[in-house]
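Give me structure tokens for this 476-residue protein.
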Amino acid sequence: MMKKLVFSTTLSTALLGAAGIAAAATQPAAPSADFKLPQFETTKLPNGLTVMLMERHEVPLIAVRAVVRAGAVNDGTQAGLANLTGDAILLGSEKHDKAAIDEAFDFRGAQLAGGSATEQTTVQANFAKNDAAALLPLFAEIVQQPSFEAAELNKLRNRKVSGLKQAKESPRQVAGTYYRSMLYGDAPYASPAGGTVGSLSALKRGDVQGFHERYFRPDNAAVIVVGDFDPAAMRRQIESLFGQWKAEGPAPQHADYGKPLAGKPRVWLVDKPDAIETTFIIGGPGIARNDAGYVPLQVLNTVLGGRFTSWLNDELRVNSGLTYGANSSFTPLAQSGTFAMSSFTASAKTEAALDLALKTYNRLWDKGIDKATLDSAKAYVKGQFPPRFETGEQLASLLGDMYALGVDRAQIDNFMRDVDGLTPAKAKAMIDQYFPRTNLQMVLVGKADDIRKVAAKYGEVTELDISADGFKPARK
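Here you go.
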């Protein structure tokens, strides 16, 4: 069967991250050798398509990825359109139906996947070197000429609608979407990637076709190939398969997608009357993906809430028993980003957990990070970095992010240097610069009758009903 990758830029996936880290992460990793991004070539075809080729001959495998600069930020009033389009691309091409494509990939033990995130939509395939001649043409077909077969599209949309309804039964799945909506208001970055029940239910085949026509065009896309191949032969094959792809009209314009709103402390209280626990997120503005602070902030966040032995997890789980896990994370986007601390606790312990989380967070300023703690986090981050880019699939994903989000390779090549250069004094300056200290934003998902008075302690409260469609307050 095909595997469908789930792409998410919401913070909901981080809610239990600290609790799920393996026991091996409790000890800092040994310092690692320097890491450089393997060499790759970037060219542009006459039709505007960017082509990125990276040779990797360790294993006879190839990872290919098509990346389109379009995602939830381009949904407009049709939330979920990019997401539906990204998945519907796998439903077959004009020449081959879904069953034929599935059979071609499954027979060869290959994988085909697709999906859409906030700012990019991707199609990717992984297969053996010897299968490139058979599978690359099918890959090119579904990218350029998807059929969006009506019956299959309806089934896919209905499954997604059912998934959205079920998700609200689990606050940890949707808290991050409320948080994004709260911080970005009516800006494109607030658009829920998966859509809402109402918006998704209203989407038609023509909407999906229109999205594909507007954004799937060579001057708004890149084809990335990583693996065991002859570069000259691969260039010829890519040119043959994608060189006739046409772009009609002017290229899409990438507008201002929004900045986090944090002018005053606010609380969104999302009422789930049958809840026995409170899921919470606390934070504010973060960074863009290409920010100069991206690398050192990974070290600082590791101390606060980025691993099992972090301050937040120690205090909220280990020392107090208020939760099974607590963490923090920066979620960068191309133009801006968010920072969040997240956890959950029994309803009756909501205030205690929130106060302890805030007290722990304030240690960044009250006590700072000493050299021993910083060195431990640096070693851990350095040890975790190279394994993130070992496989062709991982490297193709990285190159896709670099293309879609405007990340320079220097950020990867200088990762170890930037980690090593972080001192306690620099850490203090970065904490003051990047971590939001005032006007914190908070999302609480739980039984409002039990935690309403608690919520009012932390800022201006807006109440929402979790059963209502979407992730915004009701319009007055």
